[in-house]
Amino acid sequence: MFGKNIEDLTWEDVLKLVEGQVDEGQDLEFKSQHYGSSDDDKHEFAKDVTAFANTTGGIIAIGVREDNQGRAEGFNPVSLYEGEILRYRQILASRVQPLVSFTTYSVPSDVDPNLGVLFIIIPRSNLAPHCVIVNIDLRFPSRYVKTTNYLQEKDLANAYRERLMLAQS
Predict the structure, then answer these.
(1) Are 102 and 44 within 8 A, CB to CB?
(2) Alpha-carbon gap, residue 4 to 43, rounded angstroms
(3) Over residues 45-69, mean pLDDT
(4) pLDDT tens digits, 7-40
(5) Closest-CA residue to 102 (of 115, 114, 116, 92)
(6) Nearest-CA neighbor of 59 among 129, 7, 114?
(7) Are 165 and 75 in contact (CB under 8 A)?
(8) How large is the angle between the packed helices 82-95 and 39-54, nearest 10 degrees?
(9) What is the rounded radius of gyration, in angstroms, for the C-alpha atoms of the chain?
(10) pLDDT in tens, 75-99
């Protein structure tokens, strides 16, 4: 996306997202603000992370506004407080099976080092398929271009077969 390792990103690099009107896609999702604390918001976070883990992996860029066609159009710098990352880990621990791992990288704005863009990096998981627990239901999200769909029975069966083959190899 940037032509460099995410750990080397600066605010100037992040500005290029907007300048280049970068599109959301199979491996990139923009969020203008942190996921909220309502059940719906927690479900949305678990679904987004799980969908990336179940497919190609991806990055959620929190603090980037998008236009109505999914292109980066501006910034809404968010708090880079570590407590938000801990909250996200707790959401996944309570709503996703098997647990999905992720890493984060924060890029502070050039105005306030406590605000910026938080990147949540989700690798493709060898433990896929992961499910999101919703009440008593299990849902298996997957990423398709710019949207999240749920795996159908045949796709779910294939995902479990792939998991077993990876475990055997």
Answers:
(1) no
(2) 32
(3) 96
(4) 888 999 889 988 999 999 999 999 999 999 999 9
(5) 92
(6) 7
(7) no
(8) 80
(9) 16
(10) 999 999 999 999 999 999 999 999 9
**Helix, strand, coil proportions of the chain in percent (round to 5)?**
35, 30, 35
Residues in CB range of 82: below 8 A, 6 or more apart? none
- Note the helical H segments in 57-143: 82-95
CB 130 within 8 A of CB 52: no
First to last CA, the chain: 31
Confidence (pLDDT) at 3: 79
Residue 1 has a pLDDT of 63
Closest of 90, 112, 93, 89 to residue 102, by C-alpha: 89
pTM for this predicted structure: 0.92
